Amino acid sequence: MTTYLIPLILVGALTSAGVYLLLERSLTRMLLGLLLIGNAVNLLILMVGGPSGNPPVRGRTSNGETTTADPLAQGMILTAIVISMGIAAFVLALAYRSFRLTTAEEVGNDPEDTRVSRLSAMDATPVDEDRPPEPDTGKDTDLPDELDALPGQEGSR
User: Fold this and answer.
1) What is the DSSP-derived secondary structure letter of residue 156?
2) Whole-model pTM?
3) How far is it, in rounded angstroms, from Cα 38 to Cα 45?
4) 32 close to 10: Cβ distance less than 8 angstroms
5) How far apart are CA 50 and CA 3, in angstroms?
């Protein structure tokens, strides 16, 4: 089986550009990155599917080919196209909702992730064994915090 270098380079370029765009904070760039990665995977499946040939229908020939094309790769690509369009619709809905709520398209830092990263940075510092450990000042109750309930629903519990 011969491998063609140009489609492999194209798959690599599409994948690397897609990963680069996926790592951005803008939701539209994330969407473009997902679509590029989806197209790269479709091209890779098409290349792995084998050489072209007759249609996979009994009695049909195409340009005197002697082999039959593999229908599994075609079915997988069609399924991948449907899945990537579903993901694109979901990311577009997220971008629309984010823009309507914050009038910004950028994904910000999550306050809980920031708090946890600060705690882990504090845990990494060496502790004196002579000094007693500091008490935990974080809230550890079953009562709802400001992030647990929607505004206006404090008394509903």
Assistant:
1) G
2) 0.62
3) 11
4) no
5) 10
Q: Which amino acid is at 51?
A: P
Residues near 19 by Cβ (< 8 Å), separated by ≥ 6? 33, 37
DSSP structure string for 13-51: HHHHHHHHHHTSSBHHHHHHHHHHHHHHHHHHHHHHT--
**pLDDT tens-digit profile of 41-74?**
999 998 888 877 777 777 777 777 777 778 888 8
Half-sphere exposure of 132 (CA within 13 A, CB side): 3
Instruction: Give, in degrees to the nearest 5, the angle at Cα 41 between 29 and 85.
Output: 55
Distance CA 108, CA 4 (A): 42
Distance of CA 142 to the CA centre of its chain: 33
Token pair 């404090």 is found at: 154
* Both tokens assigned to 80: 């991948």
φ and ψ at residue 120, rounded to 5 degrees:
-70, -30
Instruction: Give the CA count within 13 Å in the CB-facing half-sphere of 30.
Output: 17
